[in-house]
């Protein structure tokens, strides 16, 4: 195994990590306000088909598809938010219902797009930096949307960690009763966080269908929404750890495509199952450390709140 063999693996891992990072970051923001939305997979699929359909029918390409996917994901999140927030229904059940709906809806709408494809988005080599040995091809020859996703990640991290808005979001997640008592509109804040999470999930799905593999296939997210939810727990609700986890899981995902190049004799079926096996292992290990979970877990996560 040489450095020349590893460079394309690392470069591809960043592309594979991007939808996980986007969807996971959106779910993290929602959970920091105390809302557990298990509908990430469904919102990603809805965003994927909306983005692909917009890109194909409008002829405007991947950027239009990405915008349409984000809007579709935000609108789809309302199917969860209305019963879970306004009616205080069971949040896990509402999220599962959204995922089931998203799987069926995307398959139905996507029937007419199975034979279509898009040109995708060409990688952009950052001047001077892309010529660096090793790091250049890995970090600085990616699709423009990957750089945009990293900038978006940095902006969200800064808002959560350094601004009054982030403090309010965390306060709502820790004690919605106290936040309501001092005048903050808890339900409105939670609606905004859930819709942002939906937009990020839709954006991640649209990235898959318009940039990463620019075509439509039924259930093309292949469980990435569930991995994104697991990443939030893996990261202990910390954005920086989420980014690291997304890259790790992206690398595991891409190994199945480069196994032969690396000279591995591991069965392809086992490599294809690695991301899901890794998800289970990570959740089991983290769940054993109850102190760490309780230290970072939003106190009101999954609990409904209706103002008096």
Automatic annotation (TrEMBL):
Name the UniProt record assigns to this protein: Simple sugar transport system permease protein
Organism: Silvimonas terrae
Membrane-topology annotation of the record: Multi-pass membrane protein
GO cellular component, one term: plasma membrane
Superkingdom as given in the UniProt entry: Bacteria
GO molecular function per UniProt: transmembrane transporter activity
Subcellular location: Cell membrane
Record field: transmembrane: 6-23, 35-56, 62-82, 94-114, 139-160, 181-203, 215-235, 242-260, 266-286
Keyword Transmembrane: yes
Signal peptide range: none
Pfam families found in the cross-reference section: BPD_transp_2
Keywords linked to the UniProt accession: Cell membrane, Membrane, Sugar transport, Transmembrane, Transmembrane helix, Transport
């Amino acid at each position: 195994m040489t450095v020349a063999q590893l460079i394309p693996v690392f470069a591809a891992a960043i592309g594979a990590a991007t939808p996980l990072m986007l969807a996971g970051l959106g779910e993290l923001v929602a959970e920091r306000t105390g809302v557990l939305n298990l509908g990430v997979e469904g919102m990603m699929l809805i965003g994927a088909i909306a983005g692909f359909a917009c890109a194909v029918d409008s002829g405007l390409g991947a950027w239009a598809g990405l915008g349409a996917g984000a809007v579709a994901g935000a609108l789809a999140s309302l199917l969860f938010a209305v019963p879970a927030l306004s009616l205080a229904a069971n949040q896990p059940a509402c999220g599962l219902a959204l995922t089931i709906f998203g799987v069926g809806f995307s398959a139905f709408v996507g029937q007419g797009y199975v034979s279509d494809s898009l040109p995708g988005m060409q990688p952009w080599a950052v001047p001077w930096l892309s010529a660096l040995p090793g790091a250049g091809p890995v970090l600085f020859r990616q699709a423009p949307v990957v750089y945009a996703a990293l900038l978006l990640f940095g902006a969200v991290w800064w808002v959560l960690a350094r601004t009054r808005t982030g403090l309010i979001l965390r306060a709502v997640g820790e004690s919605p009763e106290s936040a309501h008592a001092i005048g903050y509109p808890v339900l409105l804040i939670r609606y905004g966080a859930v819709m942002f999470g939906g937009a990020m999930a839709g954006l991640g799905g649209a990235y898959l269908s318009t940039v990463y593999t620019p075509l439509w296939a039924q259930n093309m997210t292949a469980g990435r929404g569930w991995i994104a939810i697991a990443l939030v727990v893996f990261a202990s609700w910390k954005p920086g750890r989420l980014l690291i986890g997304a890259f790790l899981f992206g690398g595991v995902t891409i190994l199945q495509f480069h196994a032969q190049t690396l000279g591995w004799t591991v069965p392809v079926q086992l490599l294809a199952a690695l991301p899901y096996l890794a998800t289970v292992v990570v959740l089991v290990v983290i769940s054993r450390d109850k102190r760490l979970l309780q230290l970072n877990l939003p106190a009101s996560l999954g609990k409904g709140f209706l103002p008096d």
